Amino acid sequence: MEQATGSPIIFYDIPSKAPGCAWSPNTWKTRHVCLTYKTVWVEYPDIADLCKRIGAGPSTIRDDGSPYYSLPVIQDPNTGAVVSDSTRIAEYLDATYPETLSLMPAGTRTLQKGFQFTCHRATDVSTQFIIPAILSILHPRSQDYYVRTREATFAAWKDLEAGFGRIHTWMTEGDPFVMGDFPSFADFLIAGKLQWYKKGFGEESDKWKDITTWHDGRWAKLLKNLEKYEGSFEERSE
Question: In what residue span(s) does the Glutathione S-transferase UstS-like C-terminal domain sit (predicted)?
Fold first, then answer.
């Protein structure tokens, strides 16, 4: 369900050469919310300056105390709010547009946050495989930034499958979503990673085709089931 009235929310995302342009696992968490957005594409080196200019806070604080700015960020012309970080965005949308799909149903915030942490730990191994693929779809300015700010990790493809296997065991057999018959932020978290792999490796790649077979095709089915929740977007470059 889309927001009933008002102007489209401005959604800041990172562009690529992949079909559909969107690829980031973090921004896909917000893209899956069924709202009307106007997308503004921002290359990696421009993100920090953009956030400071529009008043978006840092997504997190580094260990050395410096701010770290990242996307997604939304700017809501209907309220004047500027919100960074996918979790804070989910909480803002739940509070501001209660008529739309609730991302963190009442009483589940701790569950969703715990699931997010554990899901990241279970799938961190994928970084070794996906970063080289992502480099090939980024534009040159973002490629340079991506190389400078990513460190190699050491793992194996089977470890990634095992990580998704752990997530599979947390979910009830036959249920389409983490919480049963309806999606929540936890599903968008998983789907964000899956979209990352799909865009980075390519839909026809052996790696993506392998992922779609894991755990009785659960992950391909999840993306298919979430298609109707993807928002509608107008697009422009920053």
Answer: 111-229
- Write the pLDDT tens digit of every residue in 212-231: 999 999 999 999 999 988 76
Strand ranges of the sheet holding 36-41, from the earlier edge strand across to the other edge: 82-84, 73-75, 9-13, 36-41, 232-237
Contact between 59 and 68 (Cβ < 8 Å):
yes
Residue reference for tokens 């840092």: 58
Alpha helices in 75-205 (DSSP H): 86-96, 109-123, 127-135, 140-149, 157-170, 185-201
Q: Which of 51-55, 147-151, 219-223, 227-231 has the lowest mean pLDDT?
A: 147-151
Within 10 angstroms of residue 188's Cβ, the number of other Cβ atoms is: 25
For residue range 169-214, list pLDDT tens digits in order.
999 988 999 999 999 999 999 999 999 999 998 999 988 999 999 9
> Quick check: helix, strand or coil at residue 34?
coil
- Cis peptide bond upstream of 183, omega within 30: no
Domain boundaries, the chain: 9-104+232-237, 109-227
CATH (residue range 9-104+232-237): 3.40.30.10
- Assign domain 109-227 one CATH number from 3.30.420.40, 1.10.760.10, 1.10.10.410, 1.20.1050.10: 1.20.1050.10
Q: What per-residue confidence (pLDDT) applies to 144?
A: 84
